[in-house]
Every structure is written in structure tokens, then in C-alpha cells.
């Protein structure tokens, strides 16, 4: 299968999946107890005319499929509706908060990639006590959920030592990097352990392969053996795990943002869910689904480039 044909097929599959996801996202909120009208009234009694006006403003009395098709048509044009909680366009809320979340995820991803790959490589190549120490450390990391890491890091480095801010996202790029350091570490801790273990296992398997033995017997320097034959042959597994890591970061950022009061889309989603802010929940959920699928598409397209044994449309190596 040609690259362009495969890419076109995957994009078509993404569009179909996104359409199905949009229906589920839109319908799920209406299955939950409560209503946006009840939130807008804040428990106050209101005349039937006032309730009818609220329902008319948000089209709550329209048939379900009419509301869905109207919402989908607006979404295609970039209009996610108006937030019930904030009384403003959802698109504006996303434009204000999405960059913060993306910066947090990017910082955490860099930390995971650098430390996770380094620990995995060192553990696989050196072995012995070094490998055992790394295994113990990564076991602790994998067993620590993001929200627990957030509380521990916040209590030690922000409250007790005062080295980092305890909340907020900061003003300006430099200040934002400073404020997001602890949240990024909390978000990355579990995934560092995961990537380190995957990298170590993939490299140990490659070290036992026949072509590595042949390269060593020919006198190829150990550094070149590790780089050209071991690490390169492990990239397929590592890249596949990288897609899972990015998806996990997008989900776990909700907990970390809430713990540090960062004000990104994760914290916005948590608040919108509580207040039955239908348009905001639907928009954020759809964006997260779209990001998931985009990450998977990129991984599928990159895998054959980093590992020729993998063919387009397959994530398994041929034996």
C-alpha cells in the first residue's frame, strides 16, 4: 500500500470515528441527571415563562437529532456554542485556556522523553546494580498516580521549601515555564517509569538478537552497536509507547491542572462537567478525541520510517 493511499484511508477513518464520537459526546451529557436550566436558575423558583425563555435560548426543547445536527453544523464552522457557566463563546474560552494545557503537556512530554529514554538505555546497557536501581526507581514512579505526585511535589517544593509557585499558570512565557515546572513533573512521573521500562525491555531484546552478535564479532565499537543496531531497532516499540504516553498526558492533565489551579482546559472541563455546561464539555471532549486520533495517525505514519520491518497499516514487526 502506498504512503498517500494509506494516509488518505486513515484520514477517512478518522473523520468517520470523529463523527461517531461527536454523536456520543453530544448525547452523553443529556443522559446525565440534572439540566443546564436548573443550573442557570441556581435553585431559585422561576415562572414558567422564565424557564421557557431559558430553554428557548439554548434550544433545550428541540428534538434530540435537531439539536445534534444544528450543533454539528456549527462545530464544522468552528462555532462550539455559548458557555452556560461563563456566558461567553466556548471558542473564546478554548483560545484562552488551550495554550496553557498544550504548554504543560509539551513540558511533561520533554521530561518523559529525556529522562525515560536515558534511564531505559542506561539500565539495558550497563545492567547489574545500575539496572536494579533503575528498576526500583521506575517501579516507584509507575506506582505513583499523577494526582498523588501533584500533592507530594506541591507540599514539598512549593509549600515547605518555597522553591516553586504552588498554583496558577503565571504571566508571560518565562513565568509560565516557572509555574508549570512542578505540574509538568507531577504529570510526567508515572510516564517516565513506563517509558524507561519499555525502552529497557526493547533494548534488551535487541541486544540478544543475532545481528548484534555479528556486529560485535566484527569488531564494531560498542557505542555504534548500541546506537545503530540496538536503539534503532527498538524505536518502533518506543514510538508506539510514545503515542500512548501523549494520550495519557492529555487525560491526566485534568487532575494536575485542578490540583495546581492552572486554569487550562483540564480544569475547565472539570468545572463544566460539575455545572452541566453542555457546550463547553462537548467542545473539550471532542477536541481531546481529535487529538487522540491525530496522535495515532502520526504514530502510524512514522512507524515504517523508523523501522522498515513494519509495513503501512500494521504496528507489528514481521518475523
Rg over C-alpha atoms, rounded to the nearest angstrom: 24 Å
How would you sum up the global shape? flat
Global mean pLDDT: 80
What is the number of helices? Answer: 13
CATH architecture field of the largest domain: Orthogonal Bundle
Structural description of this entry:
It is found in: Cell membrane. The chain crosses the membrane at residues 100-122, 134-157, 177-196, 238-263, 283-306. One of its GO terms (cellular component) is plasma membrane. Belongs to the binding-protein-dependent transport system permease family. InterPro entries: BPD_transp_1_N, MetI-like, MetI-like_sf. The protein is mainly alpha-helical and 319 residues long. The protein folds into two domains: 34-79, no CATH class; 90-306, MetI-like fold (Orthogonal Bundle). It has helices at residues 3-31, 36-41, 48-57, 64-76, 90-126, 128-142, 146-160, 173-179, 181-207, 210-217, 222-260, 265-274, 278-306. Helix 9 packs antiparallel against helix 11 and helix 11 runs parallel beside helix 12. The longest helix has 39 residues, at 222-260. It is flat and about 85 Å long. The two termini are 19 Å apart. The mean pLDDT is 80.
